[in-house]
Automatic annotation (TrEMBL):
Pfam family membership, one: PK_Tyr_Ser-Thr
Signal peptide start-end: none
Any Gene Ontology CC annotation: membrane
Domain Protein kinase, residue spans: 75-346
Keywords: ATP-binding, Kinase, Membrane, Nucleotide-binding, Serine/threonine-protein kinase, Transferase
Annotated positions binding ATP: K104
PROSITE patterns recorded: PROTEIN_KINASE_ATP, PROTEIN_KINASE_DOM
Organism: Panicum miliaceum
Record's protein name: Serine/threonine-protein kinase CDL1
C-alpha cells in the first residue's frame, strides 16, 4: 500500500544461486482493452460508504464485515500476507463464490485512509486489463474500509528478488523480462486513458505474480488522473516510496506519466542488479540504486544469478532501457509504449550464441537478502 515513504527499497547485492526456467514462454499476451467508462475524480467529503454506493458499482460484491471475518478466520495473524502504511492484507476464502481472495483491511483512523479506499475502489472498478489486479468486492458497511481482490498465489516480484526462502530458485532471465514486459503493458494501458492514470506507486512490491508468473500491477490507492488540455502536470502532495520517486516529483510535487516511467526504470534495475531501490546501510552516494547504477559498467551491475542466461547484447539492451527510464530530465525518458516495444524485442528468442559469463561456465546461485531487507510483501503491500 502506498505511504509517504516506506522503509522498503535499497539493498546490497547478493551472491547467486543456480537458476532453472520457471515460465512457459511469456507472451501470454494481453491486448489493450476497449474503451471504458470515464473514471470519476475522487473527492471524499461524504462518508466513504455513501461515496462508494453513489458510484453504482454493479458487478462487485458488497460483502459484510462478518463474511470477511469468517473468510480470514477472524483476520488471524497466520493469514497475513503483508502490511502497509494504510492497513493489512490477508488471505481469505469466500464460501459464497468458492474462491481464494486477498483482503485488504484499511486502518479506520484518518481521512487519508478514506481517500485511498474510495480511490482504489473507483479506479479498479473502472480499469480492466490482463496486467492489472482484479477487484472482487469491498466492504464499506458500519465504518469499515475493506477491499477484496483476486488472490495472486506467487506473491510479489519483490519477494522473488530480495526475500527468497531457503531452497527457492530465483527468477530466471526469461521470467524476469516477461514479468517486466507484462507490468509495462499494464502501465501502458493506464497511460493510454484520457486523461491518463498515473499509478504513483510503481515498485516491485506492487507487481504481483499469478499462475505461470503472470504479472499484474496492484495497489491503486495513490493513483491520480493526469493532466488534461494544455496542462503539463498535476500538482499533488508527494507520496510514494523512497528510491522509486522521480527527482522532479520529489522536489516539486508535479506529477506526470513520466513519474511512473522513472519508477518502472528503478524496478528494472532491481531485477537486473539484484539490489533494492534504496539501501540505508550504504554510504549516501551509493544508497539510491538509480544514482549508483548510472556510474557503473554492466560487469559491475549485473546480478550474478543472471550469468550465462542471456547474451551480453540482451543485457546491454535491458540496462539501456532502464537507464533511459531513470534519466534526471523527465522529457528525456521514454514513453511506456516505447518501453513495451523495447522489452518485446528483448524477450524474443535469440539465436544460439556465446552467453554472457563472468568467472566460469556455471550459473552461480543467489542467496536471499538478509533480515533487514525482508520488507517486501507477498500480496503487494510494500509501503
Amino acid at each position: 500500500m502506498g505511504s509517504c515513504f516506506s522503509s522498503e527499497g535499497g539493498g546490497s547485492r547478493r551472491k547467486a544461486r543456480t537458476v532453472t526456467s520457471q515460465i512457459p514462454r511469456a507472451e501470454q499476451s494481453e491486448s489493450i482493452v476497449p474503451t471504458e467508462p470515464v473514471i470519476p475524480v475522487v473527492t471524499v467529503e461524504a462518508p466513504h460508504a455513501e461515496f462508494i454506493t453513489d458510484q453504482g458499482l454493479e458487478g462487485y460484491k458488497n460483502s459484510t464485515y462478518n463474511e470477511l471475518y469468517v473468510a480470514t478466520d477472524g483476520f488471524r495473524v497466520d493469514r497475513l500476507l503483508g502490511q502497509g502504511g494504510f492497513g493489512q492484507v490477508y488471505m481469505g476464502f469466500l464460501d459464497s463464490t468458492n474462491q481464494e481472495v486477498a483482503i485488504k483491511r484499511l486502518d479506520l483512523q484518518g481521512q487519508q485512509g478514506d481517500r485511498e479506499f474510495a480511490n482504489e475502489v473507483v479506479m479498479l472498478s473502472s480499469l480492466h486489463h490482463p496486467n492489472l489486479v482484479k477487484l472482487v468486492g469491498y466492504c464499506a458497511n458500519n465504518g469499515q474500509r475493506i477491499l477484496v481482490y483476486e488472490y495472486m498465489p506467487l506473491g510479489s516480484l519483490y519477494s522473488h528478488i530480495h526475500d527468497l526462502p531457503p531452497g527457492q530458485q530465483p527468477l530466471d532471465w526469461s521470467t524476469i523480462i516477461n514479468t517486466l514486459l507484462g507490468a509495462a503493458k499494464g502501465l501502458e494501458y493506464l497511460h493510454s486513458k484520457a486523461p491518463p492514470v498515473i499509478n504513483r506507486d510503481v515498485k516491485s512490491a506492487n507487481i504481483l505474480l499469478g499462475e505461470g508468473y503472470h504479472p499484474k500491477l496492484s495497489d491503486f490507492g495513490l493513483a491520480r488522473l493526469g493532466p488534461t488540455g494544455d496542462n503539463t502536470h498535476v500538482s499533488t502532495r508527494v507520496m510514494g516510496t523512497h528510491g522509486y520517486c522521480a527527482p522532479e516529483y520529489l522536489m516539486t510535487g508535479k506529477l506526470t506519466v513520466s513519474t511512473d516511467v522513472y519508477s518502472f526504470g528503478v524496478v528494472m534495475l532491481e531485477v537486473l542488479t539484484g539490489r533494492i531501490a534504496r539501501d540505508e546501510s550504504l554510504p549516501e552516494p551509493n544508497r539510491d540504486l538509480a544514482l549508483w547504477a548510472d556510474e557503473q559498467g554492466i560487469a559491475n551491475l549485473v546480478d550474478p544469478a543472471l550469468q550465462g542466461q542471456c547474451s551480453l547484447n540482451r543485457l546491454s539492451l535491458a540496462f539501456a532501457v532502464a537507464r533511459r527510464c531513470v534519466r534526471e530530465l523527465p522529457d528525456r525518458r521514454p514513453t511506456m509504449p516505447e518501453i513495451v516495444t523495447a522489452l518485446t524485442r528483448i524477450s524474443a528468442p535469440e539465436p544460439r550464441r556465446r552467453r554472457f559469463e563472468r568467472g566460469g561456465p556455471s550459473t552461480p546461485a543467489r542467496t536471499s537478502s538478509d533480515g533487514n531487507q525482508a520488507q517486501g510483501q507477498d500480496q503487494g503491500e510494500g509501503s
